């Protein structure tokens, strides 16, 4: 199952532009300290991450469902 997920992640990553890849990388990095320490993030950190994500979305840094469906149709 892990290999299937790894392959799927690789396929999706190739569809993203540089800005989106940076956003995904930032999200992935937020998981690593918590996984390594087996800790949850604080409510304050959670709220900061939500605010940052909202800023990216408000700045137009996202894909619509229609965009994703168009990309998937090209596979």
UniProtKB/TrEMBL annotation:
This is Addiction module protein.
